[in-house]
Amino acid sequence: xxxxxxxxxxxxxxxxxxxxxxxxxxxxxxxxxxxxxxxxxxxxxxxxxxxxxxxxxxxxxxxxxxxxxxxxxxxxxxxxxxxxxxxxxxxxxxxxxxxxxxxxxxxxxxxxxxxxxxxxxxxx
Length: 124
Known about the structure:
Elements: H1 3-11, E1 86-87, E2 101-102, E3 107-108, E4 120-121
Parallel strand pairs: 1-3, 2-4
């Protein structure tokens, strides 16, 4: 599935896209609140400035994804793969990050503490 198809289907009212392959998709500034991408492959995706509040990204593969300045308020990211992801200036208010994986290359906003968010660090 490409960005155009996802946006068209979302605009038509579809919000459930479990385990879909969206690797390297470009959704810069996309408006997708409440979308369900449980278990989706979003590795290398560009979601900078995307509005995803209330979305379900549980168990999604977001390795090396760009989530800079994305609105992830209230997003379920439990057990998501965030290794190498860029989360600089992302809004994570009320997000569930329990069991989400990160590593040395994951970038968070200044002052963000992944340990207090119950995230799991993977050593390389």
